[in-house]
Write a structure and sequence with these properties.
mainly alpha
Length: 159
């Protein structure tokens, strides 16, 4: 028999799955508790009790997208030795994710960059933080590959 906590966790996962699909396809501004409830066949209060406000929903979507991106790309790549093997793994896993996930749903970082380009606020900051973290990790990995002698010393790690 399923416990109430287990069912609630499954519902939260379904809410986030649907919200990520909506946000990547239609933008973060498309997310509303009412539309999400409608798509999931839940009551608005059922969605609200698990997520909270619209802004909390949008933040939760960005946080979950970041978590999944890390889990799909960086966590497995960190098992590879430093340098070119790790850089190759990051690139391979990123392209694999683009092919398997983002070609169907879209990329929240790309969509968000356009959607929030001319706006200030916490959502834009969260999206920028995710993009900066991604670029910083890539740069760090390129530098490690240079230090290991896998790439030429004059390789520009910022590109």
């Amino acid at each position: 028999m399923e416990t109430k906590t287990h069912r609630s966790g499954l519902t939260l996962a379904a809410i986030l799955d649907t919200a990520i699909a909506m946000a990547t396809a239609e933008g973060l501004e498309s997310l509303t508790v009412g539309e999400l409830a409608k798509r999931l066949g839940l009551s608005k209060s059922g969605v609200f009790s698990r997520i909270g406000s619209r802004e909390a929903l949008q933040k939760a979507v960005i946080e979950e997208y970041d978590r999944r991106f890390l889990q799909d790309v960086f966590v497995p790549a960190m098992r590879e030795p430093r340098g070119l093997p790790r850089l190759n793994a990051i690139m391979r896993l990123w392209l694999q994710r683009a092919r398997d996930v983002e070609i169907q749903q879209g990329c929240l970082y790309c969509a968000g960059a356009f959607e929030f380009d001319d706006r200030d606020g916490p959502l834009r900051d969260m999206l920028l933080d995710g993009i900066r973290a991604w670029r910083s990790a890539l740069k760090r990995t390129v530098i490690q590959a240079i230090d290991a002698g896998h790439l030429l010393p004059d390789t520009d790690a910022d590109q």
